[in-house]
C-alpha cells in the first residue's frame, strides 16, 4: 500500500521549488483572495482559531496570523516544521502559533476544541487515503466555521499530459513517475472531493481554479505579457468555468452549518 509522503528528505528543495517560484506566487495570490472573503464572512472582531493541517511553511496561515488570529500548525515532517518555526519567528509571529508534529489524521489527539477555520492545502494528493484524512480535519471545524481545501486536480494533470503529447503515458493510466519527486503521487477528481465535503455535512461556498492557464503556456516568446499580467489574469478567470476545472489545483471552501 502507498504510504503518506513525508518531506523530511527534501524539505529545503520543496520550499525552494514550490514556495519560491512563480507557480507558488500565483497559488498564493488566488487562494488569498478566497481567504479574504472567508475571513470577512467569519468576522474578525476577535481572534479566530485556525488549524493549518499539513501546513508546511505556513505561508498562507502566516498572512492570517498577521491579522491577529491564532494558528495551530500541524505537519508530518519535522524538517518542514523547523523551517516553518524559523520563518514564523523571523516574522514576529511565534506567540500566535502552536506547533504539532503529527500527521493530519491524528490531529484530534492534540487539540481540545474545534476551529473557526481549517486550512488543508495540497495535502490529500500525497496521502494513501485522502478521504480519511479529509474527514478527520473536517471534523475539527466548529458549527459556523469554514474549511479551506486545496487539492491537485486530476483533470489538470490529464490536460497537461494531453497537450504535451504524452499520450502513451495517458493510455498507461498516468502512473506516478518516481523521478519527479515534487510531483504529487496522484490527482483527485473534483467531483469526488466536492461529494466528500458535502457528505461531511458542509455547504460549499466557492471554488477557484489555481493556475488555470499558466502551466499550459508553451512558447511564451511569441506572447506579449508580464508576470504581473499573468497573476492578474489568473485571479480574473479562476472562479468561472471552464477555468475552475482546468486548474492544476482547485481551491474549494465550505461552511459547517450552525446547529439548530
UniProtKB/TrEMBL annotation:
<dbReference type="GO" id="GO:0008757">
    <property type="term" value="F:S-adenosylmethionine-dependent methyltransferase activity"/>
</dbReference>
<feature type="domain" description="Methyltransferase type 11">
    <location>
        <begin position="51"/>
        <end position="147"/>
    </location>
</feature>
<feature type="binding site">
    <location>
        <position position="27"/>
    </location>
    <ligand>
        <name>S-adenosyl-L-methionine</name>
    </ligand>
</feature>
<feature type="binding site">
    <location>
        <position position="75"/>
    </location>
    <ligand>
        <name>S-adenosyl-L-methionine</name>
    </ligand>
</feature>
<dbReference type="Pfam" id="PF08241">
    <property type="entry name" value="Methyltransf_11"/>
</dbReference>
<dbReference type="GO" id="GO:0006400">
    <property type="term" value="P:tRNA modification"/>
</dbReference>
<dbReference type="GO" id="GO:0032259">
    <property type="term" value="P:methylation"/>
</dbReference>
<dbReference type="InterPro" id="IPR029063">
    <property type="entry name" value="SAM-dependent_MTases_sf"/>
</dbReference>
<keyword id="KW-0808">Transferase</keyword>
<comment type="similarity">
    <text>Belongs to the class I-like SAM-binding methyltransferase superfamily. CmoM family.</text>
</comment>
<keyword id="KW-0819">tRNA processing</keyword>
<feature type="binding site">
    <location>
        <begin position="54"/>
        <end position="55"/>
    </location>
    <ligand>
        <name>S-adenosyl-L-methionine</name>
    </ligand>
</feature>
<dbReference type="InterPro" id="IPR013216">
    <property type="entry name" value="Methyltransf_11"/>
</dbReference>
<dbReference type="GO" id="GO:0097697">
    <property type="term" value="F:tRNA (5-carboxymethoxyuridine(34)-5-O)-methyltransferase activity"/>
</dbReference>
<keyword id="KW-0489">Methyltransferase</keyword>
<feature type="binding site">
    <location>
        <position position="121"/>
    </location>
    <ligand>
        <name>S-adenosyl-L-methionine</name>
    </ligand>
</feature>
<protein>
    <recommendedName>
        <fullName>tRNA 5-carboxymethoxyuridine methyltransferase</fullName>
        <ecNumber>2.1.1.-</ecNumber>
    </recommendedName>
</protein>
<feature type="binding site">
    <location>
        <begin position="104"/>
        <end position="105"/>
    </location>
    <ligand>
        <name>S-adenosyl-L-methionine</name>
    </ligand>
</feature>
<comment type="function">
    <text>Catalyzes the methylation of 5-carboxymethoxyuridine (cmo5U) to form 5-methoxycarbonylmethoxyuridine (mcmo5U) at position 34 in tRNAs.</text>
</comment>
<dbReference type="InterPro" id="IPR033664">
    <property type="entry name" value="Cmo5U_methylTrfase"/>
</dbReference>
<keyword id="KW-0949">S-adenosyl-L-methionine</keyword>
<keyword id="KW-0830">Ubiquinone</keyword>
Amino acid at each position: 500500500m502507498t504510504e503518506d509522503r513525508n518531506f523530511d528528505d527534501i524539505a529545503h528543495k520543496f520550499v525552494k521549488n514550490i514556495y519560491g517560484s512563480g507557480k507558488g506566487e500565483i497559488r498564493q495570490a488566488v487562494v488569498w483572495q478566497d481567504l479574504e472573503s472567508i475571513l470577512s464572512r467569519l468576522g474578525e472582531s476577535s481572534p479566530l482559531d485556525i488549524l493549518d493541517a499539513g501546513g508546511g511553511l505556513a505561508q498562507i496561515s502566516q498572512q492570517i496570523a498577521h491579522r491577529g488570529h491564532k494558528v495551530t500548525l500541524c505537519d508530518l515532517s519535522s524538517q518542514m516544521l523547523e523551517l516553518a518555526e524559523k520563518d514564523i519567528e523571523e516574522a514576529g509571529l511565534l506567540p500566535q502559533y502552536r506547533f504539532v508534529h503529527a500527521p493530519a489524521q491524528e490531529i484530534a489527539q492534540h487539540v481540545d476544541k474545534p476551529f473557526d477555520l481549517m486550512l488543508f492545502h495540497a495535502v490529500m494528493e500525497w496521502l494513501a487515503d485522502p478521504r480519511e484524512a479529509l474527514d478527520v480535519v473536517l471534523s475539527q471545524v466548529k458549527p459556523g466555521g469554514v474549511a479551506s481545501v486545496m487539492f491537485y486536480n486530476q483533470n489538470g494533470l490529464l490536460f497537461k499530459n494531453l497537450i504535451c503529447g504524452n499520450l502513451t503515458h495517458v493510455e498507461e493510466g498516468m502512473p506516478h513517475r518516481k523521478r519527479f519527486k515534487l510531483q504529487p503521487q496522484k490527482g483527485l477528481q473534483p467531483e469526488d472531493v466536492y461529494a466528500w465535503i458535502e457528505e461531511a455535512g458542509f455547504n460549499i461556498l466557492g471554488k477557484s481554479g489555481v493556475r488555470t492557464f499558466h502551466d499550459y503556456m508553451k512558447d511564451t516568446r511569441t506572447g506579449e505579457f508580464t508576470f504581473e499580467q499573468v497573476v492578474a489574469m489568473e485571479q480574473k478567470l479562476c472562479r468561472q468555468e471552464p477555468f475552475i476545472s482546468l486548474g492544476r489545483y482547485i481551491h474549494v471552501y465550505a461552511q459547517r452549518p450552525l446547529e439548530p
